[in-house]
Design brief:
alpha/beta; Multidrug-efflux Transporter Regulator, Chain: A, Domain 2; 5-stranded parallel β-sheet; 3-stranded antiparallel β-sheet
């Protein structure tokens, strides 16, 4: 069965395009830019084609086109104007819209085609910072507003993770050029959100460091073994949902006891939503909290 989403409410269009529902209704009424259907209870619904058209209109509008002028463009020529803008300036908005359409329709070829187009013009680092990070921020908002479900989020994040893995693997054919420290990257138990940690791993490998990537939901008792192999380990972890705020203090104390002995050169660096409150409290020795990936990388 084909379960591609083909019908959208006006709130879906608002959340996906960034254009307020009230404005969308005005554009419909005044300029006939969209033609919604009506349910039996007189609720507007929009087709996938309407969503695609609105995303293209949004790109034109955000690039200085007056809505009255957009309304005068024949519908078949709107994508032509969009391509011209993309060719002349940034592809960021167009790529984000394409990735969102890919997610909504579980369209892997569209994701791959969009990524390949970006990679032809930019480095992977630029794509991640300029496109994937804003996209992931938008996904969080779409999740909160019930515009997308778990399957959509898992689909798009899995594809992004694939790209990070692929680009990291290409770098790992080289021996590390910096040996003064080793980075061990892990997520605590019950934590599965790893895109941020994966990208930190990519950045560290790119900079010539040796990294050991352990991945999701690693029990604390599994980490001391690493100290038998390497000195001066910098453990890095990303706290998105776990440990919870009421568990943080105990977790850090357990980590200190198990892995950060007095005089030990090892340290723990943490970031993520649950770690934000750590920025304002006194942390155990050798534990640092960061408010962003950029902040952490500045300390490397």
């Amino acid at each position: 069965m084909n379960n591609v989403k083909k019908s959208f409410g006006i709130r879906d269009l608002e959340n996906l395009s960034g254009i307020k529902a009230h404005t969308i209704r005005i554009w419909e009424k005044r300029y006939n830019l969209l033609e919604p259907e009506r349910t039996a209870t007189n609720i507007r619904t929009y087709s996938l084609q309407s969503l695609q058209k609105l995303l293209n209109i949004t790109l034109l509008y955000n690039n200085g086109y007056k809505i009255s002028k957009i309304a005068e463009i024949p519908e078949g020529e709107i994508p032509v104007h969009v391509r011209e803008i993309v060719a002349q300036s940034t592809v960021k908005s167009h790529a984000i819209n394409a990735f969102k359409l890919s997610m909504i329709n579980f369209d892997q070829p569209l994701f791959q085609k969009t990524f390949a187009g970006l990679l032809a013009e930019r480095s992977f680092r630029e794509i991640f910072w300029d496109v994937f990070i804003p996209l992931l921020h938008e996904l969080g908002l779409l999740w909160q507003t019930d515009t997308i479900g778990p399957a959509h989020e898992h689909f798009i994040t899995h594809l992004i993770k694939q790209k990070i893995y692929t680009c990291t693997e290409k770098l790992q054919t080289l021996e590390p050029s910096k040996t003064d420290k080793v980075f061990v990257l892990f997520l605590p138990e019950n934590e599965i959100h790893e895109i941020g940690l994966l990208f930190i791993n990519y950045e560290l490998v790119l900079r010539g460091y040796r990294t050991i990537y352990l991945g999701q939901t690693i029990p604390l008792e599994n980490l001391p073994d690493l100290k038998h192999y390497y000195n001066n380990i910098h453990f890095i972890s990303y706290f998105t949902v776990s440990p919870t705020p009421d568990q943080l203090k105990d977790y850090l104390e357990s980590f200190r006891t198990e892995l950060l002995e007095a005089g030990d050169p090892c340290s723990l660096w943490v970031l993520g939503r649950q770690a934000e409150q750590l920025l304002e409290i006194q942390l155990p020795e050798h534990v640092k909290a960061f408010n962003s990936i950029e902040h952490l990388l500045d300390q490397v």
